[in-house]
Amino acid sequence: MHARRKSSPRAFTLLEVLVSLAIFALAAVVLSATYVNILTSYDAVAHRNEHEQDLRLVSAQLLSEPDRKKAEGGGDFALPDHRTARWKATIEESAVADLFKVKFRCELRDAGTGKPWAEDETFMLLRPTWSDPAARDKLRASAQDASAKRNSR
Length: 153
Prior knowledge:
Helix content is 50%, strand content 25%.
């Protein structure tokens, strides 16, 4: 009869334990870095949305300004939470009566950090109150002449 040996339960070696700990540590570092990146992205999106809302609020100041000189001069604007905004506009006439090309710049400052955030926008704006009446009449007359020439062809 063959004598059977009792086999003891096999355990992990020290090398196997160290390798598994290294793999676990690497996975933990990668996952925590990913988590931090996600939190940073959420924070950046939240600030961007806040800045976008502030920008719309400040640009409404320009859009509601009937005087071209005051619009070009810009101004300061108080925002909620003790933040401030400074804006200015460069206004150029276009070839169409009462239509202007507006280059709008807005700088936002946070009261706590003092970090500035600036945004530049360029857009076309129909604003009859900004037009010089003589220049408007001249542009309208040339547009009518051009339209008459196209219709007579």
